[in-house]
Design brief:
heterodimer, A: 194 residues, mainly alpha, Four Helix Bundle (Hemerythrin (Met), subunit A), 6 helices, 0% strand, B: mainly alpha, 17 helices, 2 strands, 1% strand
Chain lengths: 194, 593
């Protein structure tokens, strides 16, 4: 028997199942990162001194721009599907994935720079929380890229058989991707600027 | 003057879905199934095994408490020299047993049974859904949980043994503990992930897949209980996941999130930089672990409500107040966590805040319990085995709740907190409370799942034996606790001046625990014997009103549950409606006037 509301929304809620699912999942992610940000605040207010200016602000600014651009291309990818333009979808989704790769490469440069300078998590509390927060965020970026790559490649076959369902999937993947972007928007000022 | 058209349709041999259903391989059908019913049974069997295993750990501990320093009979020699040389338990092994008993009972036993098994199997049937909203995710939840369980069990065999810092894993002790703690953290990450996937699935299923006519206020209370529970799991577990990641960093990457500056261990200063806060862990841990208490209790309350309504043949008294109380309970459970931490030297302002919220949260619990008690008034009760367990649940949970009040007030908590009183209180809530509720559920829904009823005589033996033993185990703990016996003593208090007057209770508690195991064997025999020899159950064995009994065949159709999706016309507990020919009016029945 078919499970209802996998494609069309349930009238009372206005949501199809997966869209409600991803919103709930994101709520739990807010709690996860919320707990880590709370940890950051607690450790910082309890510390006698807090290191500043240890991180590379220009690189991180560039990374912020990269990630915001990838959010835009992600929306364009979904919008292209809504307008039934599969070719454009492939291009925009490909751009999203590439921007993700660029973000990770820049982050990798930052990380290796710190490691070379002996700035590893055990150096002090600042680097401990810096690596934990950005590392967990990086894992989320990688997770999103795996999903996006699947929908760019083998997963996109669904466009031929169930275009509406495929569009829904991209919308859901997009919501997750925007969330990962949003986490960075908080991480950047908290870790680099404040 | 009524017709039960849907009931007839269910028993029809012309079942179109069955004919269209393709034959699946053994692996797809029973092992990697996406059918919520198979997954529910998988959860059920796995969690029952873990419950028994966790109980066994406790039985070994109880030997040491009753007869400290004496060789453990039968199994003592098998434990090995690093755990119990010549059968005499080492303190390190006692600590491992304590930590793993708590972890296994809570995270691998009770919650997976209450939510994973009952929630998975029963909830979609009660809301008239063909399956969960995300069947593949459901399968994944189970296998992630299973992996987490295996990781936890494997931790007994790493150097230094399993985690030994208590189920709460307080740092700095846990930060510097043996390898078992790292394995414990990895296991917890699996269990938390499984809970998260499950809770998303539950909430979406309840909101999106309710059948036609089944408004929120027509949901059986069990579904409401699962709904609130899922929100607690969804929002309370991530902070523990964060805390687990931080502790893992402390242990693996050498950070100091939970290690204060200048910590000296065994006369040597730790190499870590310090600057962390051990209390941070306690806040993050209890932010999960207090809602977790309601995760343990709410599904049991849901089951008890179903069983009581069915066996009193009356509607539940105050259905709406039950629902609102459960929702309020869910909200409040997020702002009471620090009442576990009165001993940490928090400021009085914060203590006052948390003891006030704690007193407030007792109100919805009392509303729920009162409503269930009042439901019994004036009923001609059917004393079936599930009903006996449900009836025993009420006063047992009552004792558990009332003994909690002194612990919610900072002034009385401080002398009681590190004593056996806390153990007694908590176990009254969870053992004769929640576990009795879960047993009621097993006896109540077994006929729906297997098509045969459990043996009533053996069920009653199981009930009375467990009921007496439970009280003999846990009531003396309250007495010992009030006498001031610390709950962290490896010898049960032999060298503890306070304990001398109540030391003899240790033997009574231990013997009661072992005798209770014998009564659980009666249950296990009944469980397997009844699969073949139990009384055949009709599709509505208990003459119930909710959809899993009135609309689904026994056992329900694989991958789809119902022959035709039922339509709902009324609330969940329409028993003994005046003017009706029978004393139950199913939710899906069209009544012709």
């Amino acid at each position: 028997m078919e499970i209802p509301y996998t494609i069309s929304p349930r009238p009372e809620t206005g949501l199809f199942n997966a869209k409600m699912g991803i919103w709930l999942f994101l709520a739990s992610e807010v709690m996860l990162f919320g707990a880590l940000f709370t940890t950051y605040i607690l450790l910082r207010v309890g510390a006698p001194e807090w290191p500043r200016g240890e991180l590379d602000i220009p690189l991180a600014t560039l990374n912020t721009a990269v990630l915001i651009s990838s959010s835009i291309t992600m929306v364009m990818a979904w919008a292209s599907l809504v307008m039934k333009n599969f070719k454009k979808y492939r291009a925009y989704m490909g751009a999203t994935i590439l921007l993700g790769v660029v973000f990770l490469i820049i982050k990798g440069f930052e990380y290796s720079h710190h490691f070379m300078a002996g700035e590893i998590p055990s150096k002090n509390t600042f680097f401990a929380i810096y690596f934990t927060l950005t590392g967990l965020h990086g894992l989320h970026v990688i997770g999103g890229m795996i999903v996006n790559t699947y929908f760019w490649g083998p997963g996109s076959k669904m466009w031929k058989t169930e275009p509406e369902r495929f569009t829904n999937r991209i919308e859901v993947a997009g919501l997750y991707w925007h969330f990962v972007d949003l986490v960075w928007i908080f991480l950047f000022p908290v870790l680099y600027l404040l | 003057m009524s017709t039960h058209s849907s009931v007839h349709a269910v028993n029809s041999p012309l079942n179109p879905t069955l004919h269209h259903h393709e034959e699946q391989s053994f692996w797809r059908k029973y092992i990697f199934s996406t059918d919520h019913k198979v997954i529910g049974i998988q959860y059920g069997l796995t969690s029952l095994i873990f419950l028994f295993f966790g109980f066994t750990l406790m039985m070994i501990m109880r030997w040491q408490l009753a007869y400290p320093g004496e060789a453990i009979p039968f199994i003592g020699k098998m434990l090995g020299d690093d755990r119990a040389p010549d059968g005499v338990m080492l303190p390190e092994f006692y600590n491992q047993l304590g930590a793993m008993h708590g972890t296994i009972m809570v995270f691998l036993g009770v919650v997976p049974l209450a939510v994973g098994a009952f929630g998975n199997y029963i909830m979609p049937l009660q809301i008239g859904a063909p399956d969960m909203a995300f069947p593949k995710l459901n399968m994944m939840s189970y296998w992630v949980y299973f992996t987490g369980g295996i990781v936890m069990l494997a931790s007994f065999f790493v150097p230094g043994g399993a985690a030994n810092s208590g189920w709460t894993s307080y740092p700095p002790l846990s930060d510097i503990a043996t390898t078992g703690q790292t394995v414990w953290l990895i296991g917890m990450v699996f269990l938390i992930t499984s809970s998260l996937l499950g809770s998303v699935n539950f909430i979406v299923t309840i909101v999106q897949l309710r059948t036609q006519g089944l408004s929120f206020m027509r949901l059986p209370f069990f579904v409401w209980a699962q709904f609130v529970t899922s929100f607690l799991l969804l929002l309370a577990f991530p902070p523990l996941e964060a805390a687990g990641v931080l502790q893992l960093m402390d242990r693996v990457a050498g950070t100091s999130f939970f290690l204060p500056s200048g910590l000296v261990v065994s006369g040597q200063q730790l190499a870590n930089t310090g600057g962390g806060s051990p209390l941070l862990w306690q806040h993050l841990f209890w932010f999960l672990a207090h809602p977790e208490v309601y995760v343990l209790i709410l599904p049991a309350l849901g089951i008890v409500a179903e069983v009581i309504s069915n066996n009193t043949r009356k509607p539940i008294w105050g259905y709406k107040s039950l629902v609102y109380a459960a929702i309020f309970l869910g909200f409040m459970s997020f702002i009471v966590w620090a009442h576990h931490m009165f001993l940490t030297g928090m400021g009085t302002a914060i203590s006052t805040f948390f003891q006030t919220t704690t007193m407030i949260i007792s109100i919805p619990s009392v509303i729920i319990l009162s409503a269930l008690f009042i439901s019994l008034y004036g009923a001609s009760i059917r004393f079936t085995t599930p009903m006996l367990f449900a009836l025993a649940f009420l006063p047992m949970f009552g004792i558990g709740g009332l003994t909690g009040l002194p612990l919610g007030l900072a002034a009385s908590d401080i002398p009681l907190h590190d004593t056996y009183y806390v153990i007694g209180h908590f176990h009254y809530v969870v053992a004769p409370g929640t576990i009795f509720g879960l047993f009621a559920g097993i006896y109540y829904w077994y006929p729906k799942i297997t098509g045969r009823a459990l043996n009533e005589t053996m069920g009653k033996v199981h009930f009375w034996g467990s009921f007496v033993c439970m009280n003999l185990i846990f009531f003396p703990m309250l007495i010992q606790g009030l006498a001031g016996v610390s709950r962290r003593l490896y010898d049960g208090g032999q060298q503890y001046a306070h304990a001398q007057g109540v030391l003899h209770l240790n033997v009574i508690m231990s013997v009661a625990a072992w005798v209770m195991a014998l009564f659980q064997i009666v249950f296990i025999i009944n469980f397997f014997l009844s699969l073949r020899t139990g009384k055949k159950a009709s599709s509505n064995h208990w003459e119930a009103t909710t959809l899993e009994w009135s609309a689904a065949p026994t056992p329900p159709v694989p991958h789809g549950n119902f022959v035709t999706i039922p339509q709902v016309y009324r609330g969940p507990y329409e028993y003994s409606v005046p003017g009706q020919p029978k004393d139950f009016t199913p939710q899906n029945e069209i009544v012709k006037v």
